[in-house]
Each structure stands twice: as C-alpha cells, then as structure tokens.
Amino acid sequence: MSQTPPSVNPAVPRHVAVVMDGNGRWARQRYMPRFFGHKQGVDALVRAVDTFAARGVEFLTVFAFSSENWKRPSEEVSGLMGLVLVAVSKYLTKMAGDGVRIRIIGDRSAVSDKLRQAWEHAETLTRNNTRITLSVAFNYGGRWDVVQACRQALAEGVKPEDFDEAWLSRRMALSFAPDPDLFIRTGGEMRMSNFLLWQAAYSELFFTECLWPDFGEVEIDAALAAFAQRDRRFGGLRANEAVPAGT
Ligand code: IPE
Ligand code: IPE
Ligand code: MG
User: Fold this and answer.
1) What 3-state class would DSSP assign to 89?
2) How many CB atoms lie under 10 A from the CB of residue 141?
3) Which of 101, 106, 171, 188 could be 133's S-S partner, Cβ–Cβ 3.0 to 4.6 Å?
4) How far apart are CA 190 and CA 174, in angstroms?
C-alpha cells in the first residue's frame, strides 16, 4: 500500500514476495519422487525465513499453493496438504521462538478442518512476534484476492464514489503489509502465475534459474544485491532528472 517516494531505494526491501518454484524438477534431477522436492522445499523455506530476517526484511510472502495447483494429480495435492501439517508440527515451535509472525493468505474454505485449525493455531501462537512476518499464500490466487475484496465491497454496499484503490487495498489479503518491494521467482520461469497481481504493481522483479530447494543464503544475497541496484521511479523521474521547472 504505502510506496517509497520516487528514486529513493533503501538498500534492503521491507517486503519480499517469492514464488517458490522448481521443487518437482529438483527431485527429478535426483531420480526422486516430486514429493521429495516439496519436502526439501519446506526446509529451504525455514532457512530462507531466517536469512531474510537477518538481512532486515520485515515481511516475507511466499507462494506455497496456487488456486490453480488443484489441477495436479490428487496424490500430489493430498501430499502437499499433508506436508503442511507435518511442517507445522515440525517447525512451528522453532519459528515462534525465533520471533516469526505467521499469517496465511488464501481461500481457506476449500481446505480440511484439520489444516484450517493448524493454521489458526500457528497464527494465534505467533501473533505478537515482531522479527519478521511470514505470510504463506495457500490456495491463493491474485484474481481470487481481487474478487474477494470486491465481494466485501458489494456486501458492505459501498457507494461508487467511496470505492477507490485505498478502499480495495484495505480488503486485500495482505492489507497488513506494505506492497512487496521485491518479487522473486525461482525455477527459471518468467511469469507471475497469478501471484500478487494487485500488490506487485511496482515490485522489482527478480528471476533466477535456481530451483527452490537450492535457494540459500548465497542466492538470497544475490537477489538483495540486484534489488539494491534498481532505480525505482514509480512513474516519476530519476533524482538527477527531477530538476524544478524553469531551471
Ligand atoms: C513449486 O514447485 C511448488 C508448488 C507449486 C507446490 P513445483 O511443484 O511447481 O516444481 P516444478 O515447477 O514442477 O519443478
Ligand atoms: C506457481 O508455480 C505456484 C507456486 C509456486 C505455489 P507453478 O509451478 O504452479 O506455476 P506454473 O504452472 O509453472 O505457471
Ligand atoms: Mg512449477
């Protein structure tokens, strides 16, 4: 929501969004089932949270399961659901102790009661933590997010003249966070795959061939270094071009 003024690019992004892609290929390269890659992906995420927090990033939002991932074979889908439960029981205590505030974004109506309860527990347990906010996008889609926010407008009977970008932003799934400064996608594809369509309007994009389970400290630092070089203008001019009229 709040945006940095033109040409001011703090070296460290406040908010980083990541499409954690490439688990399946990582496993295939090792002649292992795709699930093995997802399992390694969870461990990579736990390490990444720590590294981003250590670098001063305040918000990390990761794409774990998209609205479209239901198209995958049912064994993979149920494997991923089960993996979330295992991950919560394995890592929640550590993350809570490390000062991580956990939020889940996405459509919860389609997941099992057990999963919903695990998320609610994770959110409640960590709600007062302040080191870093980890938002896990699960059954999330950027288009879903816009529609669910608009539905709130309809339900609240908002008048057209009161309906604007700020109003909508307050109802979007990441209303508690500033817009992502840096949007990373691992795994080599150069697309957004329906991740934060609204919120990433002015994010700096960073694509890497690195497959998600291999995305460690070195790769994180490379992404942060690339970000620090970017000239963010938000539609304005570079600082050295923005001389007052008539001079
Ligand atoms: C990303 O890895 C994780 C999820 C979508 C759950 P993929 O499973 O898409 O891995 P690739 O792209 O097939 O390698
Ligand atoms: C995006 O990856 C979704 C997640 C990482 C959760 P996909 O692997 O689903 O994206 P596509 O199908 O290559 O666009
Ligand atoms: Mg993929």
Assistant:
1) helix
2) 22
3) 101
4) 23
**Catalytic residue numbers?**
21, 69
User: Which residues are within 8 A (CB) of 196 and not within 5 positions of it... i.e. 6 or more apart?
Assistant: 17, 61, 137, 142, 145, 174, 180, 183, 203
Q: pLDDT tens digit string along 213-238? A: 999 999 999 999 999 999 999 999 98
* CA 65 to ligand 2 center in whole angstroms: 8
Task: Sheet containing 15-19: give its strands across.
Answer: 100-105, 132-140, 59-66, 15-19, 182-185, 204-207
Give CA–CA dist 205/192, Å, rounded.
10
| Cβ within 8 Å of residue 149, ≥6 positions away | 168, 171, 172
CA angle 4, 136, 42 (to 5 degrees): 120
Instruction: Please state whether the predicted TM-score (pTM) of the whole model is above 0.85.
Output: yes
**Which residue, judged by its Cα, is nearest atom 11 of ligand 2?**
193
Cβ of residue 64 lying under 6 Å from some atom of ligand 2 = yes
CATH architecture of 15-141+179-228: 3-Layer(aba) Sandwich (3.40)
Q: Which among 25, 138, 193 is the best mutation to test ligand 1's pocket, defined by most ligand atoms within 8 Å of the CB?
A: 25
Other beta carbons less than 10 A from residue 198's beta carbon: 17
